[in-house]
C-alpha cells in the first residue's frame, strides 16, 4: 500500500493515503469480509452436517451396546411370554463379549440354568446336555476364583441336580455333590435365596423313599421368595417369576387348591395372563382332574 509522507509540522509526522492506495486497501478489506461471510455460510450449511457425521458413529456404538440390564430384561420378557426361543441366541451374544466380570458370567450361567430346566421339561436332553457342559466350564473357573460366593455354590448344586436328571443312575455320585454345594450356599449366606430354592427343588423332585418331601420343599420355596422380595433390586428378574411358578405348582401338588388359585391371581396381576402356566403346573392339577 502506497503512503505519501507530509512535511513535518512542529515535530508531527503526518501521513495519508493516495486514492490508488485507498482503492487497493478497500479491495483487501472487501475480500476479507467476503471470506468471513463465506466461512460463516460453510459453517452454517455444512458445519452441522460435519458434526453429525463425526458424532454419529459414537452414538451408534452407544446405542448398540447391550449391557447386563438389557440381557436381564430380554430373558425376563421372553420367559414371561412363554417363548424360550431367543435364549440360546442371547446366551451366545453374552459369551461372545468374553467378559471376565463376575456379574456378567453369573448371569450367563443363570440363563443356562433356566434354559436347561426348560429343555429337560421339553424332553430335549441332548440340547440340555450342551448347556450343562457349558455351565460346568464357567462354574469350575468361577468357583476357583470365588470359592466363598453363595450364588455360585447354589448354581453348582443345581447343575449337579440336572446331571442326575440326565443320567439317573449317577445319582449316588452326583447327589452328595449337589447337596454339598446347596448347603454350602446357605452356610455362606443364609440371606441369599438361591440355596433355599435348590434345597426345595431337591426335596420336591426326590422320591419320598430317598428323603423327598413336597411340603417341606414348598416351605423352602416360600422362604426363598420372602428373601428375594426383600432384597431384590433387579429391574427384570425372571428367576422370581420361575420361583413363583414353582410355588404355584407345589401348592397344587400339596392339595392347597384355594391358596393356589389366590396365588395364581397375584401372579397374573404382576405378569399378565401367562398362557404357559397351565402347562408348567400341569393342566390336570389346575383343572382339578
Give the topology string: H per helix, E per strand. Answer: EEHHHHHHHHHHHHH
How many strands, which pairing sense, and closed or not: the largest β-sheet? 2 strands, antiparallel
Any idea what the CATH architecture is? Alpha Horseshoe
Number of strands: 2
Full CATH superfamily name: Tetratricopeptide repeat domain
Supply Rg: 35 Å
> What structural category characterises the helix and strand content?
mainly alpha
Helix content: over 70%
Shape, per Cα inertia axes: globular
The end-to-end span amounts to 109 Å
> Strand order across the biggest sheet?
1-2
Per CATH, the class reads Mainly Alpha
Number of helices: 13
- CATH-derived topology: Serine Threonine Protein Phosphatase 5, Tetratricopeptide repeat
Mean pLDDT: 85
Please state roughly what percent of the residues sit in beta strands, choosing from under 5%, 5-15%, 15-25%, 25-35%, 35-45% or over 45%.
under 5%
Flag low-confidence runs: 2-16, 49-54, 56-64
The number of domains is 1
Amino acid at each position: 500500500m502506497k503512503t505519501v509522507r507530509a512535511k513535518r509540522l512542529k515535530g508531527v509526522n503526518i501521513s495519508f493515503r493516495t486514492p490508488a492506495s485507498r482503492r487497493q486497501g478497500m479491495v483487501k478489506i472487501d475480500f476479507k469480509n467476503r471470506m468471513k461471510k463465506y466461512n460463516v455460510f460453510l459453517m452454517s450449511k455444512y458445519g452441522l452436517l460435519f458434526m453429525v457425521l463425526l458424532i454419529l458413529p459414537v452414538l451408534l456404538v452407544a446405542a448398540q451396546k447391550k449391557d447386563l440390564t438389557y440381557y436381564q430384561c430380554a430373558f425376563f420378557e421372553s420367559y414371561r411370554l412363554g417363548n424360550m426361543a431367543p435364549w440360546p441366541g442371547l446366551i451366545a451374544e453374552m459369551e461372545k463379549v468374553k467378559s471376565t466380570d463376575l456379574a456378567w458370567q453369573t448371569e450367563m450361567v443363570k440363563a443356562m440354568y433356566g434354559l436347561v430346566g426348560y429343555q429337560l421339561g421339553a424332553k430335549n436332553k441332548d440340547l440340555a446336555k450342551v448347556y450343562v457342559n457349558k455351565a460346568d466350564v464357567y462354574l469350575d473357573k468361577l468357583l476357583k476364583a470365588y470359592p466363598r460366593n453363595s450364588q455360585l455354590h447354589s448354581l453348582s448344586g443345581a447343575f449337579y441336580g440336572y446331571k442326575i436328571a440326565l443320567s439317573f443312575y449317577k445319582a449316588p455320585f452326583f447327589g452328595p455333590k449337589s447337596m454339598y454345594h446347596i448347603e454350602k450356599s446357605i452356610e455362606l449366606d443364609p440371606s441369599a435365596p438361591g440355596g433355599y430354592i435348590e434345597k426345595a427343588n431337591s426335596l420336591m423332585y426326590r422320591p419320598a423313599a430317598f428323603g423327598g418331601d413336597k411340603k417341606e420343599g414348598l416351605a423352602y420355596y416360600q422362604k426363598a421368595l420372602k428373601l428375594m422380595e426383600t432384597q431384590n433390586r433387579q429391574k427384570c428378574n425372571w428367576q422370581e417369576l420361575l420361583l413363583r411358578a414353582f410355588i404355584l405348582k407345589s401348592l397344587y401338588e400339596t392339595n392347597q387348591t384355594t391358596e393356589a388359585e389366590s396365588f395364581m391371581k397375584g401372579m397374573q396381576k404382576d405378569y399378565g395372563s401367562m398362557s404357559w402356566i397351565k402347562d408348567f403346573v400341569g393342566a390336570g392339577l389346575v383343572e382339578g382332574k
